[in-house]
Design goal:
Length: 423
């Protein structure tokens, strides 16, 4: 019999275990919380020997865990528009008025009287094997719950604005739930900033009913947390459409992981994004897409533009379950390296157990085409401007998929400013 080797806990893992012990919790979600705590105690922080985390060794990168942010004040501010403020992991601001058919509540209020069905939605099976998702489930005490009634069309985007207060370095954990009723539609814009040095672990869980449509945007700001793991967990029902776009231009270390499940026939999934990386930034985009039933469609397109000593990661896995016939999947990752020290790690995967599917993937890493640069310079453009034109065209192919015009214009402006600073 081989003795079991005990893993030595790091300082960060020890601190996180103490956070678990100090955070008393009761209520209907306690069983789910304890299950998550046990899983994290077993696995600890993910490291390079965990396949999905091979290129982002969090156990090595996160040497210490900063103290959890203090609980938020009980009073919640009233915001204009459909803006939700989540400060230090707690709901601090809700919309003053809501259109008919839309409900937005602080998670802490929902948990006080949640039933078993809602708890199951808040803590789904998808992604639960990941130790950082488990860490979030065990420590997140607040967030927001957004519900759209069946058939309701919400034209104004719902903004989830995450930030921290000022002061000492701290950690914040939050979990948000979006439930889209059958035939409803909404746009969720998720922005992340920080007024202090922060380690953030955020999770957004979405359930789309039959025929529902959700457009989702994830955006970092120029005051992003130093370390951020953002988990997106989505279940897409029959004939529903989930379209997500991530725009990453800020933050020292960001891991964005998406666990998407097609649970209904004729569902459509679109995941796209642009990463603008410089200095020593590190951005990891990891996708796990599961086609569980027939007639599903998924599209992935990610563009990385990397300079300095920055590094990008793209891992995309599409799993087609037995019986998920007529699945149509396409995945593409493309990267431009603008310096000798820039790095990109591409790992697209297909795991198919059905025999009547159309699935493909492609990944490219390269430099700017010298002939194209020369051609533009021969037409009178300075070299920096010629390179900027090519880079902008490369990124816009993905940005064009952003449905919200305001967000798309903002991303185009950020791209232009990033290129101007480069030149």
């Amino acid at each position: 019999m081989n003795p079991r080797v005990a893993q030595i806990k790091t300082q960060a893992e020890t601190s996180l275990a103490e956070f678990f012990s100090a955070r008393a919790s009761t209520g209907a979600h306690e069983a789910a919380r304890q299950k998550a705590v046990a899983l994290f105690a077993e696995k600890g922080l993910p490291h390079r020997r965990v396949e999905a985390w091979h290129y982002t060794d969090l156990r090595n990168l996160m040497r210490e865990a900063w103290p959890l942010a203090a609980p938020a004040a009980a009073k919640v501010a009233a915001n204009d528009g459909l803006r939700v403020d989540i400060v230090d992991g707690a709901c601090a601001g809700l919309p003053r008025a809501l259109p008919a058919g839309l409900t937005i509540r602080a998670l802490r209020d929902v948990l006080a009287k949640a039933d078993a069905a809602l708890i199951a939605q808040l803590f789904p099976e998808a992604g639960s094997h990941d130790s950082v998702v488990a860490l979030n489930a065990g420590l997140a005490r607040d967030g927001v719950v957004v519900e759209t009634a069946a058939g309701v069309k919400i034209d104004t985007p719902i903004e989830l604005a995450f930030t921290t207060g000022q002061g000492a370095p701290r950690s914040d954990m939050s979990r948000c739930l979006v439930i889209a009723g059958a035939g409803s539609s909404a746009t969720i814009i998720e922005t992340h900033a920080s007024a202090a040095r922060a380690q953030r672990n955020s999770a957004l869980v979405c359930w789309l009913g039959e025929g529902a449509g959700v457009d989702h945007v994830f955006e970092t700001t120029d005051a992003s947390p130093e370390l951020h793991v953002a988990s997106l967990i989505v279940d897409v029902g029959a004939r529903a459409s989930f379209q997500s776009f991530g725009f990453i231009a800020h933050g020292d270390l960001l891991r964005r992981q998406c666990f998407i499940r097609q649970s209904g026939e004729y569902a459509k999934i679109g995941l796209r994004g642009v990463c603008l990386l410089k200095g020593k930034q590190h951005a990891d985009t990891t996708l796990a897409i599961e086609h569980a039933v027939p007639q599903g469609e998924s599209r992935e397109l990610f563009k990385h533009i990397i300079m300095g000593e920055a590094s990008g990661v793209y891992q995309g896995k599409v799993l087609v379950r037995p019986g998920a016939q007529k699945t149509d999947g396409g995945m593409k990752s493309q990267a431009l390296l603008l310096s000798d020290d820039a790095a990109m790690y591409n790992k697209p995967e297909l795991e198919i157990y059905a025999d009547d599917v159309v699935c493909g993937h492609g990944a490219t890493i390269g430099e700017l085409d010298a002939d194209q640069v020369f051609y533009l310079m021969s037409r009178g453009l300075p070299k920096a401007r010629a390179e900027g034109v090519l880079i902008e065209a490369f990124a816009r192919e993905a940005i064009e998929f952003v449905g919200n015009e305001t967000a798309r214009a903002r991303f185009e402006e950020t791209l232009s400013a990033w290129l101007e600073a480069r030149s």
